[in-house]
Amino acid sequence: MEYADFALSFLMWLMVPVAVIYTIYRVIRRGYEVNLLAERGVDGKAWLKHKQLFRRRSTSTRRLIYVFKGPDGKNYKRHSLVDEDEFNAVQENSEIDIVYLPDSPKVNAPKPMVELVRETKKKQGRDMVPPA
User: Fold this and answer.
1) Using 50, 70 and 90 to split pLDDT, how confident is the model at 1?
2) In terms of Cα–Cα distance, which of 70, 58, 57, 54 is closest to 107?
3) Distance (Å, whole) CA 41 – CA 54
4) How many whole angstroms separate alpha carbon 44 and alpha carbon 102?
5) H-run or E-run covering 104
């Protein structure tokens, strides 16, 4: 039984760094995607299905869940974390503005998020790649 306890303990400790590495990967990947959206994304409309508000102690997390039909005819569903102003500015079961990559519509985000990146790039004097 000692071997089983050791194996279980080892697996538990292994899960922590794997979870941390995966989280870092997801954050970097999403940043890359939003950067691509700022450079080459096209405007579109999505249907806001649900707004979620999670409250934990002194912080709140706001999430929008939306669906849109891409240029390839497929439906794409996404959830996106937003700030309080954007969360309060939209209503469930209504259209919202999004930006998506025409060659990969699964990469998309609410337009205010992409506009924030575009504004930041302009302030930094970084050239934008024209839309393809």
Assistant:
1) low
2) 70
3) 29
4) 10
5) strand 104-110
